[in-house]
Write a structure and sequence with these properties.
Blueprint (H helix, E strand, L loop, with lengths): L3 H8 L12 E9 L3 E8 L4 E5 L6 H15 L7 H39 L3 H4 L7 E7 L8 H10 L4 E5 L11 H14 L4 E5 L6 H11 L7 E2 L7 H8 L6 E3 L6 H10 L4 E2 L8 H14 L3 E2 L7 H13 L6 E2 L26 E2 L2 E3 L12 H10 L10 E2 L5 E2 L2
Parallel strand pairs: 4-5, 4-11, 5-6, 6-7, 7-8, 8-9, 9-10
Antiparallel strand pairs: 1-2, 2-3, 4-13, 12-13, 14-15
Helix pairs in contact: 2-3, 6-7, 9-10, 10-11
Protein name: Mandelate racemase/muconate lactonizing enzyme C-terminal domain-containing protein
GO molecular function: galactonate dehydratase activity; metal ion binding
InterPro entries: DgoD-like (IPR034593), Enolase-like_C_sf (IPR036849), Enolase-like_N (IPR029017), Enolase_C-like (IPR029065), Galactonate_deHydtase (IPR023592), Mandel_Rmase/mucon_lact_enz_CS (IPR018110), Mandelate_racemase_C (IPR013342), Mandelate_racemase_N_dom (IPR013341)
């Protein structure tokens, strides 16, 4: 009979022990509407942790990564979160990119949930403790085709929000008429008229020529921030844009490691970093990004147009990070409309996410602080079997692809 060490080495398991052994027994994934991928991890002692590995439009690829995770990590000590993270990251990230990091996010979040439940404390307590009692949040208005944003902004204000975000423009070409940008200015004027703050998501739909024009036109109306004015990779170009506007610049939903964030921090071209916890390796890497950003006097505003598990995990970062600014919340977001499921659907107590005067109270329950309705998750996943959400493909009048 092989020794535990021999068995561990044969499976690729490190010979690392913990005070109380509780190994991973099973890892399950659930593709549920409207477009989310939930992860359930259970230990040999029956402790259950939930994670979210949503990568919009690519669920099957992430599920494929979990085939590897099950073979690799079942039998590992659930408490050794960093060891599991480093093993997956160092040996697989450079071959898997964002798909691997989203899968790792789901596993990582679930393991933090398990650790918190095992110790009977919220995850934020394990991240250094609470630095605030409540978390600022914003809701969405104006989806991919912005219209009637004033009515939507009034609805959000009635729901308890004091800040919202909307897409700045629809699809535009490399060089368009300045007249195409005037509607954006009118929309922000309308929203600001009711005394609510608004962030504008450029969504990478503008190239630098148009982005600098729109930023200049928006100056008098003081947006909360402009998000992703240029696509990732344009560090020098973004630095030049940064010098041309006083509006805070936010970016980061498509950056999913510290290494990817680093050039933007070092160049001083952003004011707010926006890691998406379901893309950027989960709680472990997102917390490291937040800490790194603090070194550069940059705020952190988690990107989270996703499900309740990702939102609860993002709140753990917010509660424990001094440089936290505001968190995205997908309740009644345009992607969720028209179906039976929304942010509150899969949790048993939606009061934990109640918005009051623009804030959600710090979660106080063990682990992530939410209770998932597993029966509904299984039912929804079974009903949605074979369905995969896909992002639309946008084309200009000439038939060429445009940024969605």
């Amino acid at each position: 009979m092989p020794s535990p060490l021999e068995t561990d080495e044969r499976k690729g398991l490190p010979a690392i022990s913990v005070a109380t052994s509780d190994r991973i027994k099973s890892i399950e994934t659930f593709r549920v509407p409207p477009r989310w991928l939930f992860v359930k991890v259970e230990t040999e002692k029956g402790i259950i942790g939930w994670g979210e590995a949503t990568l919009e439009g690519h669920s099957e690829a992430v599920e494929g990564a979990f085939e590897d995770f099950r073979e690799r990590f079942i039998g590992w000590e659930a408490a050794n979160i960093e060891d599991i993270y480093q093993s997956a990251y160092r040996h697989r990230f450079y071959r898997g990119g964002e798909v691997l990091m989203s899968a790792l996010a789901g596993l990582d979040i679930a393991l933090w949930d398990i650790k918190g439940k095992t110790l009977g404390v919220p995850v934020w307590q394990l991240l250094g403790g609470k630095v605030r009692d409540r978390v600022a949040v914003y809701g969405w208005i104006g989806g991919d085709r912005p219209s009637d944003v004033l009515r939507q902004a009034k609805d959000r204000k009635d729901q308890g929000f004091t800040a919202v975000k909307m897409n700045a423009v629809e699809s535009l070409g490399w060089l368009a008429s300045p007249d195409d940008l005037k509607a954006t200015v009118e929309r922000i004027k309308d929203v600001r008229s009711i005394g609510i703050d608004v962030g504008l998501d450029f969504h990478g739909r503008l190239h630098k020529t148009m982005a600098k024009q729109l930023a200049r036109m928006l100056e008098p109306y003081q947006p909360l921030f402009i998000e992703e004015p240029l696509l990732p990779g344009h560090v020098d170009e973004l630095s030049k844009l940064y010098q041309q506007t006083t509006i805070p610049i936010a970016l980061g939903e498509r950056l999913y490691t510290r290494q990817m964030v680093r050039p933007y921090l070092e160049s001083g071209c952003i004011d707010v970093i926006q890691p998406d916890i379901s893309h950027s390796g989960g709680i472990s890497e997102t917390k490291r990004i937040a800490t790194l950003a603090e070194t550069y006097d940059v705020g952190v505003a988690p990107h989270c147009p996703l499900g309740p598990i990702a939102f609860a995990a993002s709140l753990q970062i917010a509660i424990s990070s001094p440089n936290f600014v505001i968190c995205e919340m997908s309740w009644k977001m345009h992607y969720n409309l028209g179906g039976d499921y929304d942010l509150f659907s899969y949790i048993k107590d939606d009061e934990v996410f109640k918005v009051t005067n623009g804030f959600v109270e710090a979660l106080s329950g063990p682990g992530l602080g939410i209770e998932i309705n597993e029966d509904l998750v299984r039912k929804a996943a079974a009903e949605a079997k074979g369905f995969s959400w896909r992002n639309p493909v946008w084309r200009g009048p000439d038939g060429g692809i445009r940024e969605w």
